[in-house]
Amino acid sequence: MLDGKVAVVTGAGGGIGRASAIVLAANGAKVVVNDVGATVTGEGQDAGPAQRVVQEITQAHGAGRAVANSGSVASWEDAQRMVQDAIDNFGRIDMVVNNAGILRDRMFHYMSIEEWDAVIKVHLYGAFYVSRAAIPHFRKQESGSFVHITSTSGLIGSVGQVNYGAAKMGIAGLSRNIAMDMQRYKVRSNCIGPHAFSRMIETVPGQTEEQLKARAEKTRPDHIAQLIAFLGTDAAAGVSGQIFGVRGNEVYLYNQPRPIRIMARSDGWTPEKLAEHWLPAVKNSLTPLERTRDVYPWDPV
C-alpha cells in the first residue's frame, strides 16, 4: 500500500521508530532512517542504531530501500538535511513520522531549566523543525502525511513528567493546526498516543519485572507501526487532524476538547456567584486527576 512513497522516520534506531521504518519498508516505502544514537536522556551520539536498521531493511527487501541519517531533530539545519536526504536518494518525500524523543523525568518542584529545555527542544521543536522542512515539498506536490507521536502523559497526565507532558500536548496542538493550514493542499497531519514497551517505558517507576515482561508481550512497537503505515497510504487520504491510540491489538480514537457544560447569567458573574451557582453545577463534570493506569485499568488485548 506504500509502493512509490518515501518516508522520513525520526528516532528510528529502536522502539516504535525502528518498527515503523521496518513496517513502512515492508509495505513498499523507501525510508530515511534517522536516529542521533543518544541515550534515553539525550546524551551522546552514535550512528550505529540507524545504520543497523538500514541493514535490516536492506537484508529483507534489497539495496536502495533505506538510508541512514544521524542528525538531531533539535537542530533546524539537521532537520533540513533529513528531508534533503529523502530528495537526494529517492527523488521525493511523502511522509514524516515525528517519533524522536528523550526523557528528563523530575517532580515539578525539582525540575531544572535545562531539563525543561532539553525535552521541549527534542519533542516539540523537533516535530516542528522536521515538519517545516518537509512542508514545501508536500505543498508543491499537493500530497503528504505527517504522523506525530504524542503521549498519554500530555493527553491524560503523568506524575513527574511536566516537561514531557507539556511537549506532547503541544505536539497535539501542532498537528491539529498543521492539518487545518494544509487542508487546501491535501496534506494531512495526525497524532498517535502509543502504548508500547520501549526503553522509555522501562524508565517509568513502580513496575515489577513481571509487569514489564507482561507489557512487553502485549504492547509491542509493531502494533503502533501498523497504524503509522496506514496513515501514510492513499486509503487514509480523508483522515487528518485526529488523535489515535494503540495499545496491543486495540486501536482507538481520542475525543478532542469541546465544551461540555455552559452556564450564563444575564447580570454577569462575580467570584461569589461562581462559588454559589456555577461550581455546584459543574462540579460533577470536572475531569479527575487520573493517571493513564486509572483511565486504562484493563489489560490490553
Summarize the structure in words.
There is one protein chain. The protein is α/β, with parallel strands linked by helices and 301 residues long. It has a single domain (6-256), classed as Rossmann fold (3-Layer(aba) Sandwich), CATH 3.40.50.720. Helix content is 44%, strand content 14%. It has helices at residues 15-26, 48-61, 76-90, 113-141, 152-155, 162-182, 209-218, 221-231, 271-282, 292-295, and strands at residues 6-9, 30-34, 66-69, 95-98, 144-149, 187-195, 243-247, 250-253. An eight-stranded mixed beta sheet has the order 3-2-1-4-5-6-7-8, sandwiched between helices. Helix 1 packs parallel to helix 2, helix 3 (76-90) packs parallel to helix 4 and helix 4 packs parallel to helix 6. The longest helix has 29 residues, at 113-141. The radius of gyration is 20 Å and the shape is globular. The two termini are 26 Å apart. Belongs to the short-chain dehydrogenases/reductases (SDR) family. Residues 5-203 form the Ketoreductase domain. This is 3-hydroxyacyl-CoA dehydrogenase. InterPro entries: KR_dom (IPR057326), NAD(P)-bd_dom_sf (IPR036291), Peroxisomal_Beta-Oxidation (IPR051687), Sc_DH/Rdtase_CS (IPR020904), SDR_fam (IPR002347). Pfam families: adh_short.
